[in-house]
Write a structure and sequence with these properties.
The protein is an alpha/beta fold. It has a seven-stranded mixed β-sheet. The protein has a seven-stranded mixed β-sheet with strand order 7-8-9-10-11-20-21, covered by helices on one side. It folds into two domains: 259 residues, Metallo-beta-lactamase, Chain A, CATH 3.60.15; 178 residues, 3-Layer(aba) Sandwich (Rossmann fold). It is globular. It binds zinc ion (ZN).
Amino acid sequence: MAEKLKLSFWGASQEVTGSNYLLETPSSKILIDCGFFQGSRINEERNRKPFFYNPSEIDGLIVTHAHLDHIGRIPKLVRDGFRGKIFSTPATRSFSQLMLTDSLGVLEKEVKRSGEKEMIYTEKDVERAMAQWEEIEYCQEFALNGLKIKFRDAGHILGSTIAEIVAGSRKIVFTGDLGNSPEPLLNDTEIIKDADFLIIESTYGDRVHESSKEAELKLERTIEDVVHNKGVLMIPAFSLERTQKILFQLNELVEHGRIPRVPVFLDSPLSIQATKIYKEYSRYYNEEAKKILYKDDIFNFPGLKQTLTTEESKEIGNIPPPKIIIAGSGMCNGGRILHHLRQNLSNQNSAVLLVSYQAVGSLGRQLAEKAKMVSIFGEKVLVEAKIEKISGYSSHPDREALYNFTKNTADSLKKVFVVHGELKSSLFFTQRLRDYLGIDALAPKFGESYEI
Ligand SMILES: [Zn+2]
């Protein structure tokens, strides 16, 4: 008789953020990801709540990739008593250190704003977490309390993994976030076979993306329009992956003379540092990107200026348009992008280009849904600028790619847990798996447990 396993869903269940899953065997308790809930204030308050399990009883934590909704609560886990090891690829560890250290500044502001006494975690907790962290390469099998674990390339961001966990005769696969392959920099999402249980993301479980060719053309056209109108193009972008993808594309467009030369500002200290780490881990790029890298600095081109200091950032406002500004945060719920939006949103010659997922409650989501008036730093701002969306830059697969990923291992699957998607998206994808593949699939709710 195979021993019983228990799987509990403590985040990203019928919602996108807060990834946190607990896998229990008779001899071990391990977590997969431990991320922030994001998007709205109510969600941010959930990050303060105690964990629903005892962190000191957890033997190990597997980290699929370094986006904050997968790593944000790790220092809190350590603060609350977790002493086990943390496992990820080397790139994920480097990015996590950067992201978690950077988040301290955000948390500090949050404490001041909300009047809370304490930060969710401090620099000490981040340091402690990093000391518990072990680097594991792709395909290098490692053991943890009787479990055998292997990382596959998810192709979502640099260093991202799909975690394959073998417990006795059963293979449990956590997809983390999957990629939108083919990607300009990354390898394709690896094909998974022989999975018994699959825990799969469904961020875009009910949507079809435009192709990367269409995305590139849309970027080109949007830039041409803004330059022609002498406006400001603002691109809110996540510091990991999206920013580098946009830089890579701009590099291609500029080097091939497809867009007019205008000043481009990378106005995000976090993105500037993340881009440096990207350069350190070029061994993870796909062959095509490695070839281009050989001839050209793929994240740099004439006209690009990286603005690290606050003074340099403020100076951007004095440069006459047309100009392009890439800044964080990706969902416009903080960061330098807010200053640029406040300054330029009411200008009808300007444009905002949304290239990322926008969580419910975020300013980015309000813009995506065509709000006429928004509030920035407590000020009402009229939205006159054009709001453009490009879904082809998504780092997630669309519903077709998700379906095909699952289909590859459909024969062996006993059950699929659909997670990391808004309710509508998760349910749509769940139904599709049931109808088209005849698979036992469900979208678990927060706090539900299943014996597998
Ligand atoms: Zn992600």
